[in-house]
């Protein structure tokens, strides 16, 4: 089944692609062997779009799809929505803003829920992007959930990360204090026709001068109004310029190491079952000499 599925995906069968993603999401038996059939591929460009809620990430993604298609690219989009803490479901509503691309032959859009995974991504994002590469997409856009200061996993998978802000989000410095500043390859101030846009850009420029003076890449700040398609060409040009840097072998090694480390972490954690750990601790914690750190250190990791 899996071998035929891969052949169908490589031949451009969209239904087979969607089915494969569902099987991987649900960890159906055999999916790991399926992933081992994938050829190592660095030809596809992965673009991450992240930022606080309400800044217009989906509208910006919609505009970027159009700009990429105008250059005869083939675009896949993964839209990640947060899962409900009560029933683990998600609205998966980002595609509403991208409805004009539903039937386009060179566009594939898939909504994913985080399924409780921290970091702003779906837990199988690595695997799904590899399947999209096998399908022949030249650009894969990953739009994360509305992130806070620490949900920055997108930086481990996207070659180019776009951090989107808007004047209306309040004190933008609060969003920059932790990881978001460090992961941005391009800053976009969307809704730049609103009051406070100039101040937001000035704040970013001041922080970048303090933090980025030793970097090889000078992070650009692009003002956009995504609903009017303003600034989209400048944003695409910034992506293209940064892509030239990511083609260097040393950059690919860093990205591959990030990916391997994350996949190894996931594999190691599968050895531990929460219910089993809880049952073990019920008796262990009653022992007078019990120490959690010692107990963890002595656990069988094999």
TrEMBL record:
AAA+ ATPase domain residues: 43-250
Recorded superkingdom: Bacteria
NCBIfam families given in the database record: lao
Keywords carried by this UniProt record: Chaperone, GTP-binding, Hydrolase, Kinase, Nucleotide-binding, Transferase
Protein name: LAO/AO transport system kinase
Species classification: Bacteria, Pseudomonadati, Bacteroidota, Chitinophagia, Chitinophagales
Family: Belongs to the SIMIBI class G3E GTPase family. ArgK/MeaB subfamily.
Signal peptide per UniProt: none
Keyword Hydrolase listed: yes
Transmembrane regions: none
UniProt xrefs under CDD domains: MMAA-like
One of the Pfam families matching this protein, by short name: MeaB
GO molecular function: GTP binding; GTPase activity; kinase activity
Organism, scientific name: Hydrotalea sandarakina
């Amino acid at each position: 089944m899996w071998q035929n599925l891969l052949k169908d995906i490589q031949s451009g069968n969209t239904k087979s692609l969607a089915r494969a993603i569902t099987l991987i999401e649900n960890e159906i038996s055999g999916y790991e062997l399926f992933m081992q059939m994938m050829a190592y591929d660095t030809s596809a460009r992965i673009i991450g779009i992240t930022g606080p809620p309400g800044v217009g990430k989906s509208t910006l993604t919609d505009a970027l799809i159009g700009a990429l298609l105008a250059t005869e690219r083939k675009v896949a989009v993964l839209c990640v929505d947060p899962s409900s803490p009560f029933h683990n479901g998600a609205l998966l509503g980002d595609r509403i803003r991208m409805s004009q691309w539903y039937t386009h032959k060179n566009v594939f859009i898939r909504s994913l829920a985080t399924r409780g995974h921290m970091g702003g991504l779906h837990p199988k994002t690595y695997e799904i992007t590899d399947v999209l590469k096998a399908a022949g997409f030249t650009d894969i856009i990953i739009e994360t959930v509305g992130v806070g200061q620490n949900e920055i996993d997108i930086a481990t998978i996207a070659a180019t990360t776009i951090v989107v802000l808007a004047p209306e989000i309040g004190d933008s410095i609060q969003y920059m204090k932790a990881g978001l500043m460090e992961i941005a390859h391009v800053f976009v101030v969307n809704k730049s026709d609103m009051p406070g846009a100039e101040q937001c850009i000035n704040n970013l420029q001041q922080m970048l001068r303090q933090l980025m003076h030793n970097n090889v890449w000078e992070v650009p700040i692009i003002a956009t109004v995504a609903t009017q398609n303003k600034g989209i060409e400048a944003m695409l040009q910034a992506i293209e310029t940064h892509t030239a840097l990511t083609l260097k072998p040393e950059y690919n090694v860093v990205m591959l190491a990030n990916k391997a480390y994350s996949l190894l972490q996931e594999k190691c954690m599968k050895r531990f079952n929460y219910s089993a750990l809880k049952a073990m601790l019920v008796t262990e914690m009653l022992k007078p000499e019990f120490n959690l750190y010692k107990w963890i250190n002595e656990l069988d990791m094999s």
